[in-house]
Each structure stands twice: as C-alpha cells, then as structure tokens.
Amino acid sequence: TKQNADVFNLVGNEAILTYQGQQFVIKKCTPKAVGKTISKQITAQHISYTVQDHVQYNVKTGRKKYSIQTVMEFTLKDNELGFSHEIQGSFPLVELEDLGNKNGLELVNLCLEEFGAILFADNKKLYFYDETSWYLKTEKQLRYLYNTEDVSVDINTDNLKTEIKCYGKQKENADKLTGDNKYMAVVTYTSPNVSIYGKRMANSKTDDKITNNNDLLIFAKKQILDVPETSLTITYRGDEAVTE
C-alpha cells in the first residue's frame, strides 16, 4: 500500500530482519501480484547460518585427538564476519583426520556429530552445550483440555533398519586383495530390535579414517535408525513462558 511502500521495497534478498533480538537473512523472495494486490513471500535463515561464508582453507594433517574448543578456535580463526563461540559443559576428546579445508558450517556440523554437542546461537555467538548443560527440568505440565486442545503423534517406519555392514580404511595393498580382505576393519552390526521388526538391511557405509573394529562398530551403530521415527505435535494455549 502507499503507507508501507518504503518498507516493502526494502524486503528482498540478503536484507536482514530482526525478530525478538535475533537477526534473520532473507534468502528467498518471491514477489506476487494478484489483481491489484502486490505481496512478497520470503524465507529467512537465522544469521548463524552465514558462518558457511567463512572457509578455513588450512588443514591440520594427520589423525589426532582434538577438543571441541580446539576445533572451534581453528574453525573461526581469522573470520571477518564477526563470529565467536563459547563452550558450555564438558566434552571428551575426539580423534579426527585432516581437519580443515571446509566452510564454517561444515565444521560446526562436524562438532555436532562427532562431539554430540547441541548448538544454540545468539546471532553470531555460537554456543555449544553438552546434554547436561542444555536439558533442564522445568516441571511444566502440558495437559490435554487444560492448556492444549489438540495433540497428534506421527509414527514413521519408512527409514527403519536393523542391520548394516560397514568398512574401515583400505589396506595399502588393497588393489591386490579381494572382498573384505581389502579393508583394515569390517563389521556387521545387528540391532537388538531385529527381534521386533525383523531383518532390515541398510546399504553399507565406509569410513576411511577408521582402522579397527571397535571404532567401526561405534560408527556402524550410528548409521541406522532401529526404532520408528516418532514426533509429537501440541498446540500450547497456556500463558507460561516456554523456551527452547
């Protein structure tokens, strides 16, 4: 309308919206005209995702043990975008190989996967929590027909698997070998839930950084979903503050 035309024109790709103190960058903008009505449909990502615009080209070669603090210091070193981080809680050391030559988002996701961290960003300040630091008991109650009127549960077994075969690093003379003998480690993991859902084989996976069966078994257990994917959806109609 004539009243909001100036603001309307500012809404476009890479513009920043501020909502409840958090910045969001518009990544998709679709202007539409229906009769005399002009509108824009937009999709905006939290500004923390722009960490992918920083790339750590350097590489720490070899296979070494790292703390999550060391990985994130290396990830954000010399970034010109204003990103910083803070670690909440304690994490074990994790063995990584040839760390680097990835963008910031890839390295952040590496921390989430390898260290089991939980990320919660305050604009460009990235906080990494362990489970003890993140999950807090609030004892707030969600009661049907009291502070919620609709509840739905979605249960999906499309991706459920109970067995997988995994391979580790290939041997130096792998070209002269055949089958499983080509690898330094090979395991087949069968979930205990095979007794419930039957044998459901997943495609094999390979991790060329793993050289022993113990580590490969830990890797294998993470590669399949052996329980139904379940989500609970509730519309909360109470007046208590509910945070993340």
Structure description:
With 244 residues, the chain is an alpha+beta fold. It is 18% helix and 38% strand. It contains 6 helices and 13 strands. Strands 1-2-3 form a 3-stranded antiparallel β-sheet, with no helix packed on it. The protein has a 3-stranded mixed β-sheet with strand order 5-8-7. Strand 1 and strand 2 form a beta hairpin. Helix 2 runs antiparallel to helix 3 (104-114). It is globular and about 75 Å long. It starts with a helix and ends in an 8-residue tail after the last strand. The model has no long low-confidence stretch (mean pLDDT 94).
Main beta sheet: 3 strands, antiparallel
Pick out the low-confidence regions: none
Oligomer: single chain
Topology pattern, helix = H, strand = E: HEEEEHEEHEEHEEEHEHE
Major beta sheet, strand line-up: 1-2-3
Overall pLDDT, averaged?
A: 94
Distance between the termini: 36 Å
Q: What structural class do helix, strand and pairing data support? A: alpha+beta
* SS elements, strand count: 13
> Percent of residues in helical segments?
10-25%
Q: Can you count the helices?
A: 6
Radius of gyration: 24 Å
